[in-house]
Amino acid sequence: MASILDIKIPKRIATALRLPDNDPRRQQLRVLKKLLKKARFTEFGQRYRFDEILMSRHAGKAFQEMVPVHDYNKIYEEWWKKTLDGTPDVTWPGKIKYYALSSGTSESASKYIPVTRDILRSNRINYLRQLVSLLSYEHLPRNAVTKGFMMLGGATDLQKGKAGWYAGDLSGILMKNKPFWFQTFYKPGGRIAAIKDWNQKLNEIVEKAPEWDIGYIVGVPAWCQMLMEMIVAHYKVNTIHDIWPNLGFFVHGGVAFEPYKKGFEKLLAKPIVYIENYLSSEGFIGYKAREGAKGMKLVLDNNIFMEFVPFNDKNFDADGKMVENPEALMIHEVELGKEYALLMSTNAGTWRYLIGDTLRFVDLEHHEVVITGRTKHFLSLVGEHLSVENMNRAIQLASEEFNISIPEFTVVGFPYENLFAHKWFIACNDVVDEEALRQRIDQHLCELNDDYAVERTSALKEVFLEKLPEEVFLKFMEQKGKLGSQHKFPRVLKGKMLQDWKEFLSTK
Fold first, then answer.
1. For site-directed labelling of 487, which of 102, 109, 127, 497 has its Cα 20 to 30 A away?
2. Are 194 and 305 part of one and the same domain?
3. Parent domain of 184
4. How many Å apart are CA 501 and CA 38, to the nearest integer?
5. Which has the closest alpha carbon to 366: 1, 24, 17?
6. Cα dihedral sign for 255, 259, 264, 270?
7. Nearest one of 386, 422, 414 to 495, comparing CA atoms
8. Would 317 be classed as within a structural domain?
9. What does the DSSP assignment read for 385-421?
10. In this structure, are residues 111 and 122 in contact, taking their beta carbons and an 8 Å threshold?
């Protein structure tokens, strides 16, 4: 079989892969001006005077002053809604052909995120960049490089809208638009990828698994772990390497990998390379670009203009809702170790759009970040400021200490005896002392988070833990119509999702 690295890349894409000068401010201003120039004749561009911004001496600051920030509800109601009727040139030139349906972990309804041909092209360039970056890895599993890609994503059989557009999972859209040369390496193939029923799709992959030589697995950790467990159980083997001996890479994103690592290691006969990327429905934001990197490198020169809103009480309320005019910094203004919410403006017609993730810069020279959580997925009932990053790390440490797999968890905060308490729901099929596990998670959080430690001696009176079979979490996601694909179980439950979870547990 030909190697992926032997493929001749089109000249246009090869040019794009040559990174320009590494001045982050210059790269980002160049991107912004390119976006403004292309969208200046759209309804949005006319409303917010893009031509005037382009003529400004300080385009970045003028853009921030003249264009308001948006969350999904605001930009959808004011702008994107009309594109569903086929109206062209609303926030980006032309008609929108694809919409990514978001996983909707924090909201009950799916969100329609525009996906343009321009952003699909940008995504492909970033995929190739990430692939090329692997060549710099000292411990590269050479046998895996030329093998197949197992991409566990949404159904490529997309739903068609009345105005001629298509909607579905982002992974399904990407597979629908994959380059011709990728077909040779891509598994499970077009027929299985089109299957909408998640359980049927997994069962067919299990049946075909011995016929494929897989070097890479790409997808959300929870579902990829489930697939490997099914294959190992079905063929009564010890590890996944008994079926796919050349498996060397796991490419993941969307959620922190720490809680899943112990479960993955139990399924492997030898170490593999874990590669994190930052791909959202709104764009390909970054990827791990070098071996040993602390975080993911932001892509600053490929059609995404980024702003960073300090994640603090000045810019966000207690429920994680952003204020109307937040402080927004450009890439050259951020600080190491500070936590920010990300605003994006892209060639899919998102403008100063709050994606909902919180980031922390871990390397300013390489512009590398780690995802610390979601603006609405954190707990701070009494000032404990407990982030998803803290939760993931505590779970990872506890699972290593007890030698158990915890593929899913979620946390709830509530009033308790005139003060407050947290309750953890843990998915674990291994035998473990629940009280000992509760104590260790609590102790780790006290060590990881000073605010939490202080509040555990005062207003945060108690921490509870309930261990549930992994199947309970899966059944809940299935009941919500969010089984498999890009869907993730929310790490913090609030509002309607919390009420649904309580009702589900009371009847299970």
1. 127
2. no
3. 142-271
4. 45
5. 24
6. positive
7. 414
8. yes
9. -B-HHHHHHHHHHHHHHHT----EEEEEEEEETTEEE
10. no
pLDDT greater than 60 at residue 141? yes
Q: Are residues 289 and 253 both part of a single domain?
A: no
Tell me phi and psi for residue 288, to 5 degrees.
-70, 115
Domain-ending residue, one of 351, 374, 397: 374
* pLDDT tens, residue by residue, 15-65: 554 544 569 999 999 999 999 999 999 999 999 999 999 999 999 999 999
To which H or E segment does residue 223 belong?
A: helix 221-234
Q: How far apart are CA 350 and CA 10, in angstroms?
A: 28
**Is 407 in contact with 389 (CB distance < 8 Å)?**
no
What is the spatial distance between Cα 129 and Cα 299, in angstroms, rounded to a whole number? 10
369/406 same-domain check: no
**CA trace torsion 44, 254, 244, 185 (10° rounding):** 10
Q: Which of 323, 225, 344 is nearest to 281 (CA)?
A: 344
Query: 153 and 262: one domain?
Result: yes
> What stretches of 140-235 adopt beta strand conformation (E)?
148-152, 159-160, 166-168, 186-187, 214-219
Global pTM reads 0.77
175 and 151, same domain (yes or no): yes
Pick from 100-104, 193-197, 311-315, 439-443: least confident: 100-104
d(CA 320, CA 85): 32
CA gap 144, 149 in Å, rounded: 10
**pLDDT tens digits, 231-245:** 999 999 999 999 999
Give the residue-averaged pLDDT of 289-314: 92
User: Could you tell me if 146 and 187 lie in one domain?
Assistant: yes
For residues 305 and 261, state if they share a domain.
no
Sheet-wide strand order for 339-346: 186-187, 148-152, 214-219, 249-252, 273-280, 283-287, 296-298, 368-374, 353-363, 339-346, 304-310
Spatial contact of 368 and 296, defined as CB atoms under 8 Å apart: yes
Structure-block tokens of residue 187: 């598994």
What is the domain count for the chain?
3
pLDDT reading at 5 higher than 70: no
